[in-house]
Automatic annotation (TrEMBL):
<feature type="signal peptide">
    <location>
        <begin position="1"/>
        <end position="25"/>
    </location>
</feature>
<dbReference type="Pfam" id="PF16335">
    <property type="entry name" value="GtaA_6_Hairpin"/>
</dbReference>
<feature type="region of interest" description="Disordered">
    <location>
        <begin position="728"/>
        <end position="764"/>
    </location>
</feature>
<keyword id="KW-0732">Signal</keyword>
<protein>
    <recommendedName>
        <fullName>DUF1793-domain-containing protein</fullName>
    </recommendedName>
</protein>
<dbReference type="InterPro" id="IPR052743">
    <property type="entry name" value="Glutaminase_GtaA"/>
</dbReference>
<feature type="domain" description="Glutaminase A central">
    <location>
        <begin position="354"/>
        <end position="714"/>
    </location>
</feature>
<dbReference type="InterPro" id="IPR008928">
    <property type="entry name" value="6-hairpin_glycosidase_sf"/>
</dbReference>
<dbReference type="InterPro" id="IPR032514">
    <property type="entry name" value="GtaA_central"/>
</dbReference>
<feature type="compositionally biased region" description="Polar residues">
    <location>
        <begin position="755"/>
        <end position="764"/>
    </location>
</feature>
<dbReference type="GO" id="GO:0005975">
    <property type="term" value="P:carbohydrate metabolic process"/>
</dbReference>
<dbReference type="Pfam" id="PF17168">
    <property type="entry name" value="DUF5127"/>
</dbReference>
<feature type="domain" description="Glutaminase A N-terminal">
    <location>
        <begin position="105"/>
        <end position="348"/>
    </location>
</feature>
<dbReference type="InterPro" id="IPR033433">
    <property type="entry name" value="GtaA_N"/>
</dbReference>
<feature type="compositionally biased region" description="Low complexity">
    <location>
        <begin position="728"/>
        <end position="740"/>
    </location>
</feature>
C-alpha cells in the first residue's frame, strides 16, 4: 500500500467514525481490553475465542488453546460492497472496529461497514435454571444496527463455519449434510472416522451451523431443497474462495452457487476450505432487524464412566440432534431475553463491588460454565434416568485431568451463585467411584483420572496430597448442602466423609503434605510446611463439624469441633507474627519472612465455618505488598508467578475486614486480564511484575480454565444459607451410625484419632 493510500483510508475511517458519533451513536467507551474475547464458549470442546490485539475482528477465531484456528466468518454486503465483520480475514473489504463490550453471556463488536453501524453479538447462553438448555452446546451470533445517514441501503448478511471445528488435522476426511427441520435449516459436518482420544481439539464431534426458516411459506417449502426453501435466505456448502468471489461482485441480485459436488472431502484441500454458509437478504433497510445464526459442537457420549456411557443431559428432552437444533433456533428470542436479564442481574451486583470486578466476572463466567458437562445414563430399555446426574469437568488449561478437586473448588463460586444444585453432580462421581473402588484409601481421590475425556477413576496412591483433596471434598460437599438445603449426599457418603476428616485431622500438620495445587513447577512450590494447607485442613474439619451436625452425629460434631479448635490454636501459634502493632501471616510455619496468598481462608468465610477470627483476616490483609502492576504473587518463593482464581479467593475472604485490600487484589487481576500486550484466552497463571503468562502450547498455561469461576467469589458470599435436610433413612445419629471401615459396629466413629500437633514440625 502506498503512503497516500494509507492516508486516504485513515481519513475515510476517521470521517466514518465521526459520522457514526453524530448519527447512530456507537455507544462504546471501551475501558476493558482483554487480548482475547470469548465467541462460542460452552464446553471443553466447543470453546472459540477471538484475538483482539490487531485492532480488527477479521482475524481467525481460535480454539481455547489459542493455537488452532476454528474457521468462522461473518460478512455484511452493504450497497453491493462486501465487508468482513469477524473471523477469517476473507478476501473482501475490511470493516472498522469501533469497540468491544463483554458481558457475562455476550461479546459485542461494534463495527462500521460502509454507511451502517452494526452490533455483532456472540451469545453463549448460561442457563442455570434449566439443565436441558444449559447442557445443549449451542451459541447464537446476531446482528443489529442501522444506517448512519438514516437512509435505506441494500443489506445482505452472511455467516459460515469451516470444518476446522472438528479436527486438529487439516487433512482429516469429513462428511457433511444439510437438513431442514420445521423451523430451521442446518449444515452439519464431522470427521468421516471418529477418534475418541484427543488432547484439545476433539476428533469425534459433529459441528453444525443453523439459521431459522422464515415466512408463511415454511411448510410448503419443506418439500424443496434447502437452497430454495428459505425465502430471502440461501444455505449452501462451497469453498471459501468461491463464495468470497461471489459476495464481492457488484450485483444487486445475488444468487450464490456452489463449486463443490458430493458430501465428502477434506477440511482443507489445496488451500481451499469447504464452508457451511447461510446468507440472509434483508433488502433495502435503514434499520437492521435482529438477524441470528446458531452454531454448535456435539460430542456423544461425553465419556464412559464405570462402564456406563454418559450422555449429555439434553438427550433426555430430544430424540435427535435435529429436534434439539430446531428447538434451539426457535428459542432465540426467549434465550436473548433471558441472557439480557441474567447479564443485568450479575452486572448490577458485580458493579456494586467495582467496575473492575464486574469486568472480571464478565470475562470469566462463560469459560467457567464451559467446564461443566452434565450427563445422564440410559437404562437397558434406552430410557434415561434423569436422577442419575453426574457432571464432568475438564481441567482445561491446567491439566488433562477430569474433575480435579482443586479445579472444582475454583469453579464452585460460580455455581454457588447461579444454582448450587449444580455442585452435587460434580462431586458425586468422585464419591461414587471411591465408594465402590477396591483401592480404598482414607483420603479423597484427586480426580477421576486422565486424560479427558477418559475418566477411568484414580486408584494411585495419592496420600501425599490427601489433606488437600480431602479438605476440598469436605468443603465442596458442605457448599452444595448449604446452597441447596439438600443433605442427601452428606448422608449417603457420610462414612467416606468421616474417613476424610480423620485423615485431615491426623495429617494436616505433617510436613510431607504439600499444597498439591501449587505443585506446578512454574509456581515453584516445592517446600513443605505451607501454612495455607493448614487452613485447608482446618476448614475441611470445620466443614465436617457442620456435616456431622446435619446427619445427626452430634457427638462426632463435638469431637471434630474440639480437634479443629486445637488445630487453629497450633496453626496460629506457628503462623501469626507480630512486629510492634503490626501482624502478618507466614507462608511457611515458623518463618515470619515468608508470605503468600492464604486463599484457603475463603472456605471459612463463604461457609461461615468460624475456623479463624477477624484478627487472622486482618493479619492477612497486612501481610503483603500490592505494589506489583499485576497483583500479588502466590508466595514469596513463587518467582513472582500468581493465580487469578486464588487471588479472587483472598479478595473475597478479605471483603469484610479490608475492602481496600479486596479492591487492590481485584485491580491486579484486572490489570492482567485487560493487558492486550499479553496473549491467550483468559488465563489464571501469570507473572505479577511483567504480566507475562506461560507460552501457548505449554502446559499448564491456565488458558480458558474453568477455575476462573472464582471470579464470582465475592458475589457468592451472598448465597443464602439454607438449613440442611437429610432424608431420615440416611441419618447417622451418634449411637447407631455404621462404623467406619475396619472397626467393629458400635464403636465410636472417631476411635483411634489422635491429633498430632507436637514434634512433627521443628524448623531449625
Ligand atoms: C490495547 O489496550 C489499550 C489500553 O490499555 C487500548 O488503548 C488499545 O486501544 C488496545 N488495543 C487494541 C488493539 O484493542
Ligand atoms: C473495497 O475493496 C476494493 C478492493 O480492495 C477497493 O477498490 C474499494 O475501494 C473498497 N471499497 C470500499 C468501500 O472501501
Ligand atoms: C438447578 O439445577 C438443577 C439441575 O442442574 C435443576 O434441576 C434445578 O431446577 C435448578 N434449580 C433452579 C432453582 O433453577
Ligand atoms: C450496540 O452495542 C452497544 C454496546 O453494547 C450499545 O450501547 C448500543 O446501543 C448497541 N446498538 C444497537 C443498535 O443495538
Ligand atoms: C426504506 O424502505 C422501506 C421498504 O423496504 C420503506 O418502507 C421505507 O419508507 C424506506 N425508508 C426510507 C428512509 O427510504
Ligand atoms: C456497482 O455497479 C453500479 C452500476 O454499474 C455502479 O453505479 C456502482 O458504482 C458500482 N459499485 C461499486 C462499489 O463498484
Ligand atoms: C432483482 O430481483 C428483483 C426481485 O426478484 C427483480 O424485481 C429485479 O428486476 C432484479 N434485478 C435485476 C438487475 O436482475
Ligand atoms: C436412577 O439413578 C439413581 C441415582 O443413581 C438411582 O438411585 C436409581 O436407582 C436409578 N433408577 C433406575 C430406574 O435405574
Ligand atoms: C490417625 O492417627 C492414629 C495415631 O497414629 C492412628 O491410630 C489412626 O489410624 C489414624 N487414622 C487415620 C484415618 O489415618
Ligand atoms: C450457615 O448456618 C450454619 C448453621 O446455623 C452456621 O454455622 C454458618 O455459620 C452459616 N453460614 C453462613 C455463611 O452464614
Ligand atoms: C504469546 O505469549 C507468549 C509468552 O508470553 C509468547 O512466547 C508467544 O510468542 C506469544 N504468541 C503470540 C502469537 O503473540
Ligand atoms: C518442614 O518441617 C520439617 C519437620 O519439622 C523439617 O524437617 C523441614 O526442614 C521443614 N521444611 C521446610 C522447608 O521448612
Amino acid at each position: 500500500m502506498r503512503p497516500g493510500q494509507l492516508l486516504t483510508q485513515l481519513v475515510s475511517v476517521l470521517s466514518l467514525f465521526l459520522l457514526s458519533e453524530c448519527t447512530v451513536a456507537s455507544g462504546i467507551r471501551q475501558t476493558f481490553f482483554p487480548p482475547s474475547v470469548p465467541l462460542a464458549v460452552r464446553s471443553p470442546v466447543f470453546n472459540t475465542w477471538l484475538d483482539t490485539r490487531g485492532g480488527q475482528p477479521s482475524v481467525s477465531a481460535v480454539f481455547a488453546n489459542d493455537v488452532h484456528i476454528t474457521g468462522w466468518a461473518g460478512i455484511a454486503r452493504v450497497d453491493q460492497v462486501a465487508y468482513r465483520l469477524w473471523g477469517a480475514p476473507r478476501a473482501v473489504n475490511a470493516s472498522t472496529w469501533l469497540g468491544t463490550t463483554v458481558t457475562p453471556t455476550r461479546t459485542i463488536f461494534t463495527l462500521q461497514a460502509g454507511p451502517m453501524v452494526l452490533n455483532v453479538t456472540f451469545l453463549s447462553p448460561i442457563e442455570p435454571t434449566d439443565p436441558v438448555k444449559q447442557s445443549f452446546p449451542g451459541v447464537y451470533v446476531y446482528i443489529d444496527g442501522g444506517a448512519t445517514d438514516g437512509k435505506n441501503h441494500s443489506v445482505q448478511l452472511f455467516s459460515d463455519i469451516s470444518a476446522e471445528w472438528v479436527s486438529n488435522n487439516l487433512a482429516t476426511a469429513i462428511d457433511w449434510s444439510t437438513t431442514s427441520t420445521a423451523s430451521a435449516i442446518y449444515h452439519q459436518v464431522q470427521p468421516s472416522t471418529l477418534v475418541h482420544t484427543f488432547q484439545d481439539l476433539p476428533e469425534d464431534v459433529v459441528a453444525w451451523h443453523a439459521i431459522a426458516l422464515v415466512g408463511p411459506l415454511r411448510s410448503i417449502h419443506l418439500k424443496l431443497t434447502p437452497l430454495q426453501s428459505n425465502p430471502g435466505r440461501q444455505s449452501l456448502v462451497a469453498t471459501d474462495s468461491a463464495l468470497d468471489a461471489q459476495l464481492a461482485t457488484n450485483t444487486t441480485n445475488l444468487t450464490l452457487t456452489s463449486d463443490l459436488t458430493g458430501t465428502t472431502g477434506l477440511i482443507e484441500n489445496n488451500g481451499l476450505f469447504p464452508i457451511f454458509a447461510h446468507l440472509v437478504d434483508l433488502g433495502e433497510v435503514a434499520t437492521i432487524p435482529t438477524t441470528s445464526w446458531a452454531v454448535g459442537v456435539v460430542r456423544d457420549p461425553i465419556t464412559t464412566f464405570q462402564n456406563t456411557a454418559r450422555r449429555s443431559f439434553w438427550w433426555s428432552a430430544y430424540a435427535t440432534l435435529a429436534d434439539a437444533i430446531n428447538a434451539f433456533v426457535l428459542d432465540f428470542d426467549a434465550a436473548q431475553t433471558r441472557a439480557l436479564a441474567l447479564d443485568e442481574q450479575i452486572t448490577t451486583a458485580a458493579t456494586a463491588i467495582s467496575s473492575q470486578y464486574a469486568d472480571l466476572v464478565a470475562l470469566g463466567l462463560r469459560q467457567a460454565l464451559a467446564g461443566y458437562e452434565l450427563t445422564i445414563s440410559a437404562a437397558a430399555d434406552g430410557a434415561f434416568n434423569t436422577s442419575d446426574l453426574v457432571a464432568f469437568m475438564k481441567d482445561t488449561g491446567n491439566s488433562q485431568r477430569v474433575n480435579p478437586t482443586e479445579g472444582l473448588l475454583g469453579l464452585m463460586p460460580a455455581l454457588m451463585y447461579l444454582n448450587a444444585s449444580m455442585i452435587g453432580p460434580l462431586i458425586e462421581p468422585l464419591l461414587r467411584f471411591q465408594q465402590t473402588s477396591a483401592a480404598g484409601y482414607d483420603y479423597a481421590l484427586p480426580d477421576l483420572g486422565s486424560p479427558y475425556p477418559s475418566a477411568p477413576g484414580n486408584t494411585a496412591d495419592n496420600s501425599d496430597v490427601g489433606v488437600e483433596n480431602s479438605g476440598n471434598m469436605l468443603i465442596l460437599a458442605l457448599a452444595h448442602a448449604r446452597g441447596t438445603g439438600d443433605g442427601t449426599i452428606l448422608g449417603q457418603y457420610y462414612t467416606l466423609f468421616q474417613r476424610y476428616a480423620s485423615f485431615t485431622a491426623n495429617n494436616t500438620f505433617d510436613p510431607s503434605q504439600q499444597t498439591s495445587d501449587s505443585l506446578e513447577p512454574i509456581l515453584q512450590q516445592d517446600v513443605a510446611n505451607i501454612t495455607n494447607l493448614g487452613v485447608k485442613g482446618i476448614a475441611g474439619l470445620r466443614a465436617m463439624v457442620q456435616i456431622a451436625e446435619a446427619v445427626g452425629d452430634e457427638a462426632g460434631a463435638a469431637e471434630y469441633a474440639s480437634l479443629a479448635t486445637k488445630m487453629t490454636a497450633t496453626w496460629t501459634d506457628w503462623t501469626l507474627f507480630s512486629a510492634g502493632a503490626s501482624t502478618s501471616l507466614g507462608w511457611v510455619y515458623r518463618d515470619g519472612s515468608s508470605q503468600g496468598l492464604m486463599y484457603n481462608l475463603y472456605a471459612d468465610k463463604l461457609l461461615g465455618l468460624g475456623a479463624f477470627d477477624d484478627s487472622i483476616y486482618e493479619a492477612e490483609a497486612n501481610g503483603y505488598s500490592t505494589s506489583n502492576t499485576y497483583g500479588v504473587a502466590l508466595s514469596s518463593d513463587s518467582n513472582f508467578m500468581t493465580r487469578s482464581d486464588w487471588t479472587l479467593f483472598v479478595a473475597a475472604a478479605l471483603s469484610d475486614v479490608s475492602p481496600t485490600t479486596r479492591d487492590a487484589l481485584v485491580a491486579g487481576v484486572h490489570a492482567r486480564a485487560s493487558n492486550n500486550a499479553t496473549n491467550g484466552t483468559f488465563s489464571n497463571l501469570y507473572n505479577v511484575q511483567t504480566g507475562a503468562g506461560v507460552e501457548q502450547g505449554i502446559s499448564p498455561n491456565g488458558f480458558a480454565t474453568p477455575a476462573q469461576g472464582a471470579m464470582m467469589a465475592v458475589l457468592a458470599l451472598s448465597t443464602p444459607n439454607k438449613t440442611i435436610s437429610v432424608p431420615s433413612s440416611l441419618m447417622h445419629s451418634s449411637f447407631s451410625s455404621p462404623a467406619p471401615r475396619g472397626e467393629a459396629k458400635g464403636e465410636r466413629s472417631l476411635h483411634g484419632l489422635v491429633l498430632q500437633t507436637s514434634g512433627t514440625l521443628q524448623k531449625s
